[in-house]
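Researcher: I'm preparing a figure for a lab meeting and need a structural model of a single chain. I don't have an experimental structure, so a prediction will have to do for now. The sequence is pasted below. Please return the structure as tokens so I can convert it later.
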Amino acid sequence: MEQSALRNWTNELSETYFSKPFVDDVMFNPRLRTTGGRYIPSKRVIELNPKYLKELGEEEFAGIIKHELCHYHLHIEGKGFGHGDPEFKELLRVTGSPRHCSPLPSERVKTYHQYQCQSCGKTYERKRKVDTSKYCCGKCKGKLKKISKIH
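Model: Understood. Here is the structure written out token by token.
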């Protein structure tokens, strides 16, 4: 998607849901990893993660744009635009914007290490390896044994 098309789409969503024009910058930022987008108040710029458009489609991406527009319009009006502010939560509700975005399918597939207590049999899944000589079962203090690596 071209920069101008993204700008037009953002302005269209702003006019439709907020009845106000979007007059600042919006851009793709492929370096974003853990979020669908962000609003930078000091620059009055909305940055969006292009992976969400590619992997989850236009409907999910439109929700992310609406969420960022909530931050944007509240900031311009001098109201509370943070996630915890009541004005922000109310505007999310009124515009039907999502509070959080869905996780990316490409980020969901991770390797997990599975451990089991030799005393009580409780199993643990961890993203990182656990030093079994240093750590023990949190339930019974038994010795842990590595079972497998889950992909």
